[in-house]
Amino acid sequence: MARHADTRTPRRSALLKAGLTVTAAGAAVLGAGAGAQAAAPVPLPVDSLTRTDAAAAGAGALSGVTHGLGPLTRLQLDPLAKTGVDPLDNGLGTQVADFKPVGTNLVTDHLTQGGAVADLPVAGPLTQGLLP
């Protein structure tokens, strides 16, 4: 007989009802406890708020941001750099008359060689000045 055509047995039905009852009772107990905890008033330390040093808080926040973002300037930007399947490694160039040749490799060479943000010509010095 197929599983979908199986009739429910009284024992299975009783176990299902008992499990649902225990689950509902547990949810009611936990919900009441969470509600009672949330209803309790929380005293605020008002006197400690007046003694906050804004300059020290700002310096701490700036220090945290710079030390958190500093290592990101050394990460390799192009994950396919130095591989044979890097789509940025395909360069296109041209030369008009006797002028110096111009190509797309001037822009993409930093990335295809595994460069990071700190190695880029314009963004590199800016990030080195802003981040450690």
Concise account of the structure shown:
InterPro entries: TAT_signal. By secondary structure, this protein is mainly alpha-helical.
Task: Report the span from N to C terminus.
Answer: 72 Å
Low-pLDDT ranges? none
The counted number of beta strands is: 2
Task: Name the helix and strand elements from N-terminus to C-terminus, one letter apiece.
Answer: HHHEEHH
Q: Walk across the major sheet and give the strand order.
A: 1-2
Largest sheet: 2 strands, antiparallel
Mean pLDDT: 77
* Shape, principal axes of CA atoms: flat
Computed CA radius of gyration, to the nearest angstrom: 33 Å
Helicity range:
40-55%
How large is the count of helical segments? Answer: 5
How much beta, percentage-wise? under 5%
3D structure, described in words:
- This protein has a domain of 57 residues.
- Helices cover 50% and strands 3% of the residues.
- The chain has 132 residues and is mainly α.
- This is ATP-binding protein.
- Keywords: Signal.
